[in-house]
Predict the 3D structure of the following.
Amino acid sequence: MNQQEPETAGKLATTAVPKTTSESSVADTLTQLQSFSDTYDTIDYIYIVDSTHLVGVVSLHELLIAKPKTLIANIMIRNVAYVHQNTDQENVAQLALAQNIKAVPVLSMNEEFIGVVTSDVILRTLRDEHNEDILKYAGINVSANERLSQFTMWQHLTSRMPWLVIGLGGGILAAWVVEKYSYAMESELVLAAFIPAIVYIADSVGSQTQMVFVRSLATQQRTSILKRLGKELVIATFVGAILSGLIGIISWLWLGKLAITLILAISVLLTVYFSVIVALILPWVFDKAGKDPALASGPLATVIRDVSSLAIYFFVALQIL
């Protein structure tokens, strides 16, 4: 057997599971279960193995309600959902959810039966992967099998600093954009008061879109990126129109200046569009490169959204003023 990575099905699988052959009877299989029940890690399913290959599976429930002389071949399920030994643990858990099964069989790269990933391991994997994604959204580099509570001070520092440095660089870049185009606000200083609102809208819209898209990638609910982009841009049109209308009405009632109203309304609409595009393209690129798309949802995405929203805001202001 090839050596597996620590977060793969091969590492999670247990070999202590009930196995039988297709020619065995229900009575013989039940006798075997009773004789060796204390050696099994799970008895939710009995796996039918001919030679070294998995040919079917039968649940304990089906076994108990079948007639004693019935052959296993007559009651087993032949189309078995399985994973290979190098399958990532998150995909194992997602398969269990999609197929509504309590344990997932694991095969070698030669299609030989290795064992199964049990329900308790699947639940633990889902919890660990969920925690990992949350930490990555916060810019903390921790794998699903690592525990922050066990980290040394140096590990805490190295797991947090890389994205924080990137975030600092993004903040400096955003400050440069504001300083470079500050003359756009000389005639209308009130524009500066709306900078937090523009940046907030970019982050909120981008985060919502990106969170949904990253989870769809993780659960393998995949569609064409162009089809997904088209759908999200249609949604962005309605979202952008509503937000643009609201901020336009508020600024007009508050300030009574047509130029400011147009700048804010157009900037919000363009910012929503750009944030949606970044929210889809960035995780998609990470996924295609073999990287965890959740990495694209943290500080890197925030930096891109913040800087781009400011650039859009000042560009629109310069064209109108």
In short: The chain is about 60% helix and 10% strand.
